[in-house]
Structure formats: structure tokens, C-alpha cells
Design brief:
By secondary structure, this protein is an alpha/beta fold. The protein is built from seven helices and nine strands, in the order E-H-E-H-E-H-E-H-E-E-H-H-E-E-E-H. Helix 1 packs across helix 4.
Length: about 250
Amino acid sequence: MTMVQQSRWVIVTAPTDRGDDPRDQVLGALRVLRDRHPDTAFVTAVLGGSGTSVTVALDEAAASGATEVVVVSAQTVLDRKIDAWFRRVIGHWLRERGSDGPDVRLAGPLSGTDTYADLLDAAISGPTAAARTTTAPLTSPAWDEVPGFARHVLVCRGPRCSARGGPETAQTLDNALEARGLGDDDVLVTQTGCMFPCSQAPVVAVYPDNSWYAELRADRVQRFVDEHLVEGRPVTEWSGARRPSDTLEA
């Protein structure tokens, strides 16, 4: 069998490995595109989470001898904040790499009502723009210290929580905090991997209060914010059952 030299790579990106676009949909589209473009390598990468990072995917493309890399967002609804972070990370990689590397280009956003594979195909086949090295750096004096937040809220985005309302809980929480004028210096929200117990999904924990919530669905978030995060009174009726630790003191 003759191996095809893949000098062109396409990296399909998502914010995390728990993004809004179903993984099966992305992988199914890539199978179609590999058949259409056998001379192109198609891979996925994420900005955060446990999947292959954007910089690792770029390293792999460079190591393979690729001469051109096209980066395209998997999101069908453009998030400008996420888009800016992708550009910043790619710009950082280019600065670190120097002139020794492939030509990295950015595809336009997905647009239209075609199949997912056709949307991606149109984006990578259309006009692309050269990635810039002049993007903002990944470090800043503003990020030298841990924010002075009063509470740290952990929203589980493991497989079961993600399937049972975790994304909606996280988005509703962000909206409710913004409406209250609360930022990272007040309440720091972090989306996590599996936190257990999965049967109580979606699960949310609050520290330093050591409070765990079971089935904190989107329709419960406003009361959770008002009573616990603003007034300091945990909503005990939604507390999740916890097993005592055998090794740590309470």
C-alpha cells in the first residue's frame, strides 16, 4: 500500500473535551473529510481539558513535516472570547517556535445549514488568514496571584453530569453571577472532570464551605446563587449525600 505524504494538516478545535459539539459528530465528520482529502491529516484539539491540546497538535504537525496547518473551530456558534484565546495560544506557539515550522493559517467560522462535514469542508477550502505572532502573551501581571474570591464553585462536567444538565447549570450560573455583578474576585467558578457521585448529577460543590449539591439543575441555580453565594446560607434541602472519609478527619 502506498502511503500518501500529508503535508497539509487540519486541526479542528473545541474549547474543551466537554464542548457543546457532540464528539461523535466531530469524529464522524472527520472520517468523511479524510475520504475526501486523502492528502490532508485531520486531527482534533482542545483549548483545555483532557484532550490533545492545541500546542501539542501543532507540535505533532511540525514533527511530521507538515508545510501548512489550517486551524478551524468546531463551534457552529462563534464565541469571540474563546476565539481570541485560540488565537493567543497559536500566537504563543509561533513565537516559541520561531521561523522553523509550518505555515499556520486560520479558517473562517462555520456558517450555513449544511451537514457538519460540509460546513468544515467549506471552511478549510475557503479563504484562510495567516496566524499572527503579535497576539497578546499568555502571561500578565494581572494573573500573578490567585484571585481574592470568597467562594470557589466546582461544577462537574463529567460524562454523566454533562448528559444530565451540567452544561446548562454552568451557563445559567455564569449568567446569574454576571447579573449580580459578581466576578472571579467574588466567586470563582471552575468546570471539572468527574467529581462523583454520578447518580446525583448534575453535581456542584462550594468551598471553603464544604457544601455539595445534588441535582443542581439550571432551574435551581438562581436560588442557589441568591441564598448561598450572596446571603451565605447553603440550601440544605439540596445537599448531596456524602460518605464519611476513612482516612481524613472531617
